[in-house]
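Page 42, continued from yesterday. The earlier attempt failed because a stray header line got pasted into the input along with the sequence. Redoing it now with the clean sequence only.
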Amino acid sequence: MTRKRILILDGHPARSSISHQLARTYFDAAKQNGHDARIVALHDLDFDPDYGFGGYKNQKPLEPDLESFLDSLEWCEHFVMTSPMWWGGLPAKLKGLIDRTFLPGRTFDPRGTGLPKPLLSGRSAHVILTSDSPWWYFRFLLNRPLYWQLKRQILGFVGFKPVKVMHFAQASHPKDKDVDAWMQKVSVMGTRAA
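This time it went through. Structure tokens are written below.
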């Protein structure tokens, strides 16, 4: 087994959540299997999530927690993010983290013609989403817009490839057996660093 450098982001803004349990389960399994893993919890990060500017020429200075997150993102070979899906999208603070840190010069190079050059190539990613609504609603009625946003417009845009998405549904009031099954699947993923 190849040892990997893994960054796990608990993307739920609350201290206690299923997203936190999923992130911790992945982290514990990865560490137990010899991977070099770091875990970051969104709720512990102190930053202004509002980008606050109309372009990239006058960028807001990054707070220390954002610099540290970016350093870890550049360090990792595999990135894992757990998050709830709220109103079909990411929680506001998590979207703010992306808005503030996925910047030119650090995650992509806007110079040249055509699409910007990704600066985080050579890394893979896995997103683990939870939601209240059933998976089939997002897949068949909405065509999974958040999946495509994360895979192509955010993580893929800056170079992560492949980007896999796993979705656990009806997470607000789940049965214990369902949560146990979710944790087991994530533990296997952590063991494999996939």
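Notes: The first helix runs from residue 18 to 32.
Reminder to self: strip header lines before submitting.
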